[in-house]
Amino acid sequence: MSRTLGVTANFPAGARRMASQTKVKTAIFDSSKYHGLERDALVRIYRTMFLSRRLDDREIQLKRQNRIFFQISGAGHEGVLSAAGLILRPGYDWFFPYYRDRALMLMLGVTPYDMLLEAVGAKDDPSSGGRQMPSHWGSKRLNIVPSASATGMQWLHAVGAAEASLYYDRFPKALDQARQAPLGDSLTHHSDEIAYVSGGDGSTSEGEFFEAVNAACLRRVPVLFLIQDNGYAISVPIEAQTAGGSISKLVSRFPGLMVEECDGADPLECYAVLSRTISYCRTQRLPALVHAQVTRPYSHSLSDDENLYKTAEDREAEARRDPIPSFGLFLVREGILDEREMGEIEREVERDVLDATDRALAAEAAPADSVYAGVYSPDIDPTGPQFEAALPQPAYNGPGKAKTMVEIISATLADEMDRDERIVVFGEDVADCTREANLARVKGKGGVFKATAGLQRRFGSARVFNTPIAEAAIVGRAFGMAVRGLRPVPEIQFFDYIWPAMMQLRNELSNIRWRSAGHFKAPVVLRVAIGGYLTGGAIYHSQSGEVIFTHIPGLRVVMPSTALDLCGLLRTAIRSDDPVMILEHKHLYRQPYSRSPYPDTAFTIPFGKARVVREGTDVSILTYGAVVHRAEVAAAELAKERISTEVIDLRSLSPYDWEAIRASVGKTNRVIVAYEDMRSWGYGAEIAARIADELFDELDAPVRRVAATDTFCAYHPKLEHAILPQTEDIVGAVRELAAY
Ligand SMILES: Cc1ncc(C[n+]2csc(CCOP(=O)(O)OP(=O)(O)O)c2C)c(N)n1
Ligand SMILES: [Mg+2]
């Protein structure tokens, strides 16, 4: 394993002594031969490369001794990363690294001890507090946003972070507001900062990569994409990964994108290329992509054995391109280091690594009862009393019942945008008119449902803008903006098309706070148009599926059924500190029965508080969304039969109001969970299970579910009627339970 030790072995002591004696002591150092790098910088590169490798070797040893639990090395990538570390600015630029970035992290100021704390999973591991695998770098102090394990998601985050750079230039008040928010004290912004993002050749095959490059060029933002191409993605070689074998060739025609290639094993060449490209990003405020050819002298990770797919010759060839011996030899030949100095560096590195290892192995693990810390914000509790509406509670349908659900969205957003300059609204078709010059001549689109109508006209195109049809990018860019303190409120046009964003939602947005041990957060408010009953919506415009998202810890999910609730819950979402999904039912957007007067601009509704829509004593219906109205109609009908039905609108699905459920079941002893989604594995399953578990003694009848058929939603209205739960289904179920 320790080819690094070969660095020493490669240089017979005599030869090295000669080199040092004849050159170092006598030659005048000429930095122009090394792209302007001074001797110290060259030595620092070597030392960092060597340290990076020794840390990998040490971790590999620890893994074999079962003292750490996983290992991912940066071996072979050290050349380009050390060079990048000389140019990029820690705590100034923004970093979205991947797992091979060890040498860059060392250059930026992550210590060997920090790294080993992550490897042992210590409580004080600054990246994740023992929650993430090793090599998932993170540091609030250094602006290193912790990477997840999903390859290729980070490309989009960097674009969002770079968009935030330009935004803060333009809206300085937003930066002040971001700094006053929780975790905001250390937020930095500089007008020549850039976002650095890196990944392997394989990770450029994810659609997210192309979405990110496209968005970076469209928005003209300062991002450096560093592709570290080691020719393999685990066992898959580049010719099976990238058409034509070169990602830089594929993207070379993107407008505004500076594209360069370099030998990633040659730190000096990398330094020259990176100096140019980073300077382009900094000064032109535009994106650049550097494609560095590196090697992977070790297997993919300790779970992989490269002998299974690389021949001995392949491996030999890789070993010959190992950057550490070659750069060491270069320094000796150039007379920059002599044998004694090199030996000293190596011994010092060994000592540092040993010392860091001893300390890390002695470090405490996080206690088991800490696992819940950081799932949600410890600073703002959206269920708390500060979100209770100021009395008197506004009427749902009193006089002046002015606004539909869809109208109240733009009204609420406008008031919040007035108050909070951090808010940015974007998505497909959300702007009034992308071509600003035409704004005066057209009415404006403002969303396919008009939920964002007039916002671009009022707040400008920097705060309200259209995006490409790329849902992963919408959420991924929002993530990058939110970690930098903005309050993105993007829209997903149809729930049915949210799936490309699933990785961002499940693996990034929801858990960034938890996996960064509370150092980072991404409180994005994602508005999503959902649901059926459209008579013609069919499979791809009628989907439900809220339970897929309520199953994600860290993500709050609310689903209002009236304009007033939408207003209050949206405002709470914006003022809270967690990622929130607002599920807006399309069928309710314009229903007269969902209208409400617009309350004042401070109106909020706490999450996790249900609304008793109708009181009753015989049977409880727990429901939400478009089924609320159907339950109300059913209850009115049942009243004629002297069956008294209580209707509870949960409004907030995660968290949900268990106390309201308990109170209602305690009163009626008979309960139905009614929801629009498919019946099996649906939202009602969890509620029914918990009632059976905790309220068994209260029940006089089985818990019943009324829901859709376990099919897709069909186009023909008759079929849709048969598929989705209807008033008559609720009436039937209540009758049965009442008679049980
Ligand atoms: C989205 C996703 N798919 C699959 C994996 C499993 N996986 C982890 S690393 C990897 C290969 C990545 O190759 P490349 O991007 O070339 O980086 P390298 O490891 O070669 O530096 C794969 C398939 C993953 N982590 N994430
Ligand atoms: Mg690779």
Structural class of the secondary elements?
alpha/beta
Q: Report Rg.
A: 29 Å
Ends distance: 72 Å
Bound molecules: thiamine diphosphate, magnesium ion
Q: What is the CATH architecture descriptor of the largest domain?
A: 3-Layer(aba) Sandwich
Named CATH topology of the largest domain? Rossmann fold
DSSP summary: helix tally:
26
CATH class of the largest domain: Alpha Beta
Read across the widest sheet, the strand sequence of neighbours is: 1-2-3-7-6
Q: Give the low-pLDDT segments.
A: 1-26
Number of E strands: 20
Number of structurally distinct domains:
3
Summarize the biggest pleated sheet: 5 strands, parallel
Query: What proportion of the residues form beta strands (DSSP E)?
Result: 5-15%
Helix content: 25-40%
CATH superfamily placement of the largest domain: Thiamin diphosphate (ThDP)-binding fold, Pyr/PP domains
SSE topology sketch:
Elements: H1 5-9, H2 13-24, H3 39-64, H4 78-87, E1 94-96, H5 102-108, H6 112-120, H7 154-170, H8 172-180, E2 195-200, H9 207-219, E3 223-229, E4 232-233, E5 236-237, H10 247-250, E6 258-263, H11 267-284, E7 288-293, H12 312-320, H13 323-333, H14 339-361, H15 405-419, E8 423-427, H16 455-459, E9 464-466, H17 471-483, E10 487-488, E11 491-492, H18 502-509, H19 512-515, E12 525-530, H20 546-550, E13 556-558, H21 563-575, E14 580-585, E15 611-614, E16 619-623, H22 627-640, E17 645-649, E18 652-654, H23 658-668, E19 671-678, H24 683-694, E20 704-708, H25 717-723, H26 727-738
Parallel strand pairs: 1-2, 2-3, 3-7, 6-7, 8-9, 8-10, 11-12, 12-14, 13-14, 16-17, 16-19, 19-20
Antiparallel strand pairs: 4-5, 13-18, 15-17
Helix pairs in contact: 3-4, 3-5, 3-13, 3-14, 4-5, 4-11, 6-14, 7-8, 7-9, 7-17, 15-21, 17-18, 22-26
The protein binds thiamine diphosphate and magnesium ion (MG).
Magnesium ion binds at residues 200-202, 230, 232-233.
